[in-house]
Amino acid sequence: MGKNGGTISGRINVAIDGPAGAGKSTVARKVAEQLGYIYIDTGAMYRAVAYAAIGAGITPDDSDKLGRLVQTLNIVLAPGGEGQTVWLNGENVTAAIRTREVTLIVSQIASHEAVRLNLVQLQRELADSKGIVMDGRDIGTHVLPNAEVKVFLVASVQVRALRRFQELSGKEAVPLQQLEREIAERDQSDERREISPLIRANDAEVIDSTELTIDQVVARILDLCRTKTVEAK
Ligand code: DC
Predict the structure, then answer these.
(1) Which residue has a Cα nearest atom 10 of ligand 1?
(2) According to the UniProt entry, what is the EC number of this protein (predicted)?
């Protein structure tokens, strides 16, 4: 039972969607921690495919090869210290999937139907037993349309680029303006793709994190979870 187990009974699924850098993974992890739920970062799965494609020398536009590649991949997300550990065919790729090389191609990798079909099936299986907080782009609209709580988390491009800049400082020196440009491009690519584009579900609650702290966003989502659990009783 989670820290709020006294007020939250029965397990629900929580879907958190939104553009890159809106704070989804940090927030989703904390919400899961508070509820005693499992956090699933679906972006990490697409990143693992992108990483595997680079290793196999497959270009991000090669639908056929990517479709075959994804079927050979065993992606496991294991809860661990900072977020979760990502395993790809037995290799710990937690750090490797966060490089810029992966970040720059992952949106294109995620635009292929064969890749999405495979990962969405895995995501649905993981959510089957409820008690899941899942973040991504299409969770509320497509992966878990029946999720009891749906959040669409947004923030200005400037704030998202700044957060990414601070995250990268000391690791990779990338000018802030370049990050802003890249984030805006990734938004466009995620929003405009034909299959499961990034779009708010009609029944999702929009939370703008531009001027909120992480803890304030987490508190808002936990409130939604309480309401839904009470309604579901
Ligand atoms: O959340 P992230 O930045 O790690 O996601 C990496 C990429 O994967 C992002 O460009 C969009 C894509 N993605 C997706 O298409 N659908 C999801 N459910 C999650 C991520």
Answers:
(1) 107
(2) 2.7.4.25
The answer, yes or no, to whether any atom of ligand 1 lies below 6 A from the CB of 43, is yes
Which residue segments constitute the domains of the chain, with CATH numbers given?
Answer: 13-232 (3.40.50.300)
Query: What secondary structure does DSSP assign to 27-80, as a single string?
Result: HHHHHHHHHTPEEEEHHHHHHHHHHHHHHHT--TT-HHHHHHHHHT--EEEEE-
Q: Is the beta carbon of 46 within 6 A of some atom in ligand 1?
A: yes
Confidence of residue 84 (pLDDT cuts 50, 70, 90): confident
Residue 32: closest CA among 64, 4, 65: 4
Tokens coding 69: 């590649």
Write the burial class of residue 183 (CB in 10 Å: 0-12 exposed, 13-18 middle, 19+ buried). Answer: buried
The reported pLDDT for the residue numbered 195 is: 86
pTM score: 0.90
Amino acid at 158: Q
**Which amino acid belongs to residue 171?**
K
| Pocket residue to mutate for ligand 1, from 16, 17, 106, most atoms within 8 A of Cβ | 106
Kind and range of the H or E run holding 15: strand 13-17
Question: With the CA atoms of 161, 78, 43 and 21 taken in that order, what torsion angle do they form, in degrees rounded to the nearest 10?
Answer: -20
Q: Among 35-39, 128-132, 225-229, whose mean pLDDT is lowest? A: 225-229
